[in-house]
From TrEMBL, chain A:
Record's protein name: Phosphoribosylformylglycinamidine synthase subunit PurS
Keywords: ATP-binding, Cytoplasm, Ligase, Nucleotide-binding, Purine biosynthesis
Family: Belongs to the PurS family.
Pfam families xrefs: PurS (PF02700)
Amino acid sequence: MKTRIFVTLKNGVLDPQGKAIHHAIEGLGFSGVHDVRAGRLIEIEHEPGLSKADLESMCTKLLANMVIENFEIEQA
Amino acid sequence: MRAAVIQFPGSNCDRDMAVAIRDITGADTSLVWHRESELPSNLDLIAIPGGFSYGDYLRSGAMAARSPVMQAVIAAAGRGVPVLGVCNGFQILTEAGLLPGALRRNAGIRFVCRTVGLTVENSQSMFTSGYSVGEKIHIPVAHHDGNFFADDATLDRLEGEGRVAFRYAEPVNGSARNIAGVLNDAGNVLGMMPHPERMIEAMQGGSDGRRLFEGLIREIA
C-alpha cells in the first residue's frame, strides 16, 4: 500500500525557494502566475495495517518541522 | 574539564571545534560518533559542530537530530551540561527541540560565506560572559540555511528573557529580528550560526571567537 505525504510551508512563512522559482517561471515568458510555494512530496510504501495515527506520528516526529510546516496525508 | 564534540556523517567543523576547545580551555576533548548511545561521563561541555550532516537530507539537521547520540545529548542538556551548537549544530539543536524556532533557506537563496559583524545582546550567559553587552564583534558565517524563524510570540519571549545571545549587526540571511544566536530557557544551550571556532587567533583574521571559549571555561571552572 502506498501513502503520499505532502509537506508544505505554513502560511506566513516566507518561501525564498518558491520566490526564486516564480522568478524563473516569469523568466521563461509565462505570465499570470501570482505566487509559487515549494513543498515536498514523500511516498511511503507500507503494510496495509499501518495506522493513520502512526503515519501522523511519523510526520510530526520527522517528516515535517511543525514550527514552519504543515503536512497532509493522502492514502490511495 | 572534559568536552565532547559530536561527529555526524557530513560534519566538517568537528576537528576545528575540537582544536579550539582543546587549545583554549585545555579540556580533555573527545570526538563522539553519532551512532554512540552514550556520552563520556562527567562532561563539562558538548559541542555540536558545523557541516552538512546527512547531506542536509529532508531538512538541515533533521536526520542528525534523530540519531542515537542526540538522545544522550538531550538528557545531558536536561541535567544542565552546557551544549554549544554552531551552524549545522544550531540547526540540529532546533530540530531536536533543544532550542526554539527553525533555520530556513537564506532569504537571498545564496550561500553566505564571509565574516560578519555581530552585536552581543547578552553577556550574562555562560557562553557570552567574555563579552560586554552591545559590543560589536566579527565572526565568520558559512551557511545556506541560517534564516532564523520563530513566531512573533516566541521572538518576543526570547527577547524578553534575554535569550537572544547575538544579533547580526546588519541583515545577513533574512533572520527574524537579525537573530544570530539563541539560548534555551535554562541558559545552558546556545545555538549560533557564526563560527567562533574559526576566529580564535590572529592568523585567522581575529580572535573574537576565542573569548566565547575563554568565558565558558571561567564559568565552568
